[in-house]
Structure prediction request, 320 residues.
Amino acid sequence: MRATARAHPNIALIKYWGKRDSVRNLPAAGSISATLGDLWTSMTVDLDESLQADVLAVNGRGRADLLPRVARCLDDVLGTSRAAARVASRANFPIAAGIASSASAFAALVVAADAAGGGRRSTAELASLAGRASGSAARSLCGGFVELQPADGDVTVTSLRPASGWPLRVVIAVTDAGPKAVGSTEAMEISRATSPFYARWLEQQADDLAAARAAIAARDFSGLATVAEHNCLKMHSVMWSSRPPIVYWNGVTLDCMRAVRELRSEGSDVFFTIDAGPQVKAFCAAADEARVHAALAAVAGVTDVLVSGLGEAAVPIDDA
Ligand code: DP6
Prediction:
């Protein structure tokens, strides 16, 4: 009745920003991401009949504030007549700062909960359950390059290419490791309700997805760079044009973007993407990693630089 799983965060190349159904947590459009290999969350779920209520510890500290969302996810996987659970998670990277920690956390949670309950569910079912908790978490059920599509009141995830099929590197410049001011769930609802660009953003998503899919199939770095930066900047334009405006960037974020563009103009294979936080994620070819790392580390105000390859699907692990 106890199991542990490990899952990796994923970084969207074509973003999910907006829901068609906020009760079921269904994305309004598809998205494409890459799962990271070197950053991880491990999650232990211990179902204990003698326990009165669920308890949650994150990196060794009790987090009653995060418990309702975790308990709801456990109910979705195990049913509401389940035993209470002792849930403990650990991550090897800063959480709640826009490095997709909720994606790896909920992906690991559904896999661990299912394994603790006997391990009956398919990857497709687990992705659907993770997506209910956090849309982007569904993508962390798969490794490498992953596409998510909403379909028939549910989501499907498809592996577009394994990590080994195009071993890009990701260099993450941390510009502020504190928790974000507005969570993405609330922020995307504000965008849906108020941004004059929201409808256009959704209309163009199919074209961006097709361009990214083709670039990934052909290992066309410059094609992927062009569409991924465009899609990222479009998502942030939707955020900026929301009322109230949602601005996740700081001055250092902009300096990092400029550093990445400079490297590309000098011939490096690198592009940036930014999510609901101020960190800059630079995707690059392995041959350019050292240069990208040095350039981002040299930007004044960058507090940390994390590096990762692409990685594998969420899996149960031996927690002995
Ligand atoms: C900017 O998956 O965190 O990272 O479904 O409300 O939990 P909820 O949202 P979440 O949103 C991720 C937004 C993003 C883009 C992306 O990962 O596609």
Remarks:
- Residues 12, 15-17, 25, 31, 102, 134-136, 184-185, 275-276 surround DP6 (CB under 6 Å).
- The mean pLDDT is 96.
- The domain at 165-309 is CATH 3.30.70.890 (Alpha-Beta Plaits).
